[in-house]
Amino acid sequence: MGKxxxxxxxxxxxxxxxxxxxxxxxTPGGKLAVQYTKKKGTVAKCGDCGEKLRGIKALRPKSNIHxxxxxxxxSRAYGGARCGTCVRQRIVRAxxxxxxxxxxxxxxxxxxxDKAK
Length: 117
What we know:
By secondary structure, this protein is of the alpha+beta class. It has helices at residues 61-65, 84-116, and strands at 22-26, 32-36. It has a two-stranded antiparallel sheet with strand order 1-2.
């Protein structure tokens, strides 16, 4: 609540929890009043490495609904779910796996030709 003893809670909730954080404000009429502060939102994290995602607003779930799509994601594959380094790793891994398959196929074809001769 704070150090000001002239104020009391407006709700029937007396415990010092994160949902019950208040500020003392002066109203335009000059009275002291209690204002309940909202909880801070957390930044979205990468699903692979757990790093904070850049370019995405830190919002509470309810307020995140009303925000436009451009504030929730980045214009990239896996934007808003994975960080750029993890996306790069996925692309490189997929490319190398495909290259490996091609090399395997070529070696298999060469072995067939050698057996046929």
